[in-house]
Amino acid sequence: MTTTPAGAFTFVLHSHLPYARQAGMWPHGEEWVHEAIAETYVPLLDALNDLVEEGVNFRITISVTPVLAEQLADKTIQEHFLTYAEERAAWAAADISRFADVGDDEMKQLAIHFHHWYSRILSSFRDRYGCDVIGALAKLQDAGYVEVSTSAATHGYLPLLSRDSSIFGQLQTGVASYRRHFGRDPKAIWLPECAYRPAYWDETDGEPIRRPGLESFLAAQGLGVFFVETHSVEGGRPIGKAAGEAIGIYGAVARRYTIELSESEQTEPGTTYKTYWVGDEPGKVAVMGRNARTGQQVWSGDFGYPGDLWYREFHRKDAVSGMQYWRIGGPGLDLGQKPAYDPVRAQERIGEHARHFVGLVDELLTHYAASTGEFGMICSNYDTELFGHWWFEGVD
Asked: Residues 225, 229, 231, 233: what is their CA dihedral angle, to the nearest 10 degrees?
């Protein structure tokens, strides 16, 4: 029996870190990149490659900015990361003896857990991926599982650049960097901060000139898709508790075929369940908006998954080794009162939250199809570094 799907779903992960190569270490030096490699990029690569080996035919979009790509491909950062991971594994090993000496078996077991965890990360980075995170992503893309998208050269806020030549240069350099690292042309782009600029008349210098929308620059580089925040499509519709209670104006990017619309057309609300052509030439550049409900399920401080009391606490670190051995424990709990982390219970919550998310996506797409009679799409966009780093269990 065949079943007609109600819609489509994709994750879009945006990967970016500021340039920190040889900028010292903690808290805002090169260690910034090392932490992301250990806690986000390598675990994500492990998860995706494990799925490939299990025969799961998945699809996912991962954006990598030129600033990040250049750092991850840099031999100095790769060598420094090996030292970083070896040190953390050694620190956890030292904690095993330290906790054993004071008879604290619970903390001893946690130290053993994280010693093994850092040892696995080190092994994956060095042996499974040859210290080459970008190369590992390229292999997944070449095999058809991952679509790697690009970004502007320095992650600059494009709508505020005063010269169109600067926008062109930012995008051209981003495409050139991508081509060098991935051996092909990019198809999609994550605009820095998801910031879009429609065409407009600029009278700054007296004589009015028409400055093109960003889609014109994207089309010139062969980029056919970009991503925006929810309100850019829904036109001011509130996100969170107020979502669904008000209808905003039609979003600047959710306009088919032309940016010069009548007043009546501008009051039509857009929806992130659709993809829209942008600008004067339909069929050139499309936009996909972040789905608010799936986004809030992760980002919301009220009901987001990362705040679960069984997940690892990010902020509390051991005074001797700097390892993170505690869990969130509950809302508003003082750092000194945080209970010890429980990896087994955390894994149970991972399964529960994963099943809940799958059910949420199914419910949203089924409802959209039933209410509109149309095939819908959910695009769930997140910062890649949220997973694994800020939300330790997020990749799983």
From this structure: 10
- Split at pLDDT 50, 70, 90, the class of 18 is confident
How high is the pLDDT of residue 32? 87
Sketch the domain layout of the chain as residue ranges.
Answer: 158-180+194-281
From the candidates 31, 342, 383, 396, which is the catalytic residue? 383
Instruction: State the Cα–Cα distance between residues 312 and 303, nearest whole angstrom.
Output: 17
How much is the pLDDT for 256?
33
Secondary structure of the chain in the HEC alphabet? CCCCCCEEEEEEEEECCCCCCCCCCCCCCCHHHHHHHHHHHHHHHHHHHHHHHCCCCCCEEEEECHHHHHHHCCHHHHHHHHHHHHHHHHHHHHHHHHHHHCCCHHHHHHHHHHHHHHHHHHHHHHHHCCCCHHHHHHHHHHCCCEEEEECCCCCCCHHHCCCHHHHHHHHHHHHHHHHHHHCCCCCEECCHHHCCCCCEEECCCCCCEEECCHHHHHHHCCCCEEEECHHHHHCCCCCCCCCCCCCCCCCCCCCCCCCCCCCCHHHCCCCCCCCEECCCCCCCCEEEECCHHHHHHHHCCCCCHHHCCCCECCCCCCCCCCCCCEECCCCCCCHHHCCECCHHHHHHHHHHHHHHHHHHHHHHHHHHHHHHCCCEEEEEEEEHHHECCCECCCCC
* 383 carries an active-site annotation: yes
pTM of the shown model: 0.88
Listed in sequence order, the residues at least 6 apart from 346 whose beta carbon sits closer than 8 Å to its beta carbon are 310, 311, 312, 327, 393
Condensed to tens digits (0 to 9), the pLDDT of residues 318-344 reads 999 999 999 999 888 999 999 999 999
Confidence of residue 249 (pLDDT cuts 50, 70, 90): very low
Q: Decide: residue 300, CB within 10 A, 0-12 exposed, 13-18 middle, 19+ buried.
A: middle
Of these residues, 79, 193, 202, 265, which one is catalytic? Answer: 193
The pLDDT tens digits for 186-205 are 999 999 999 998 888 887 77
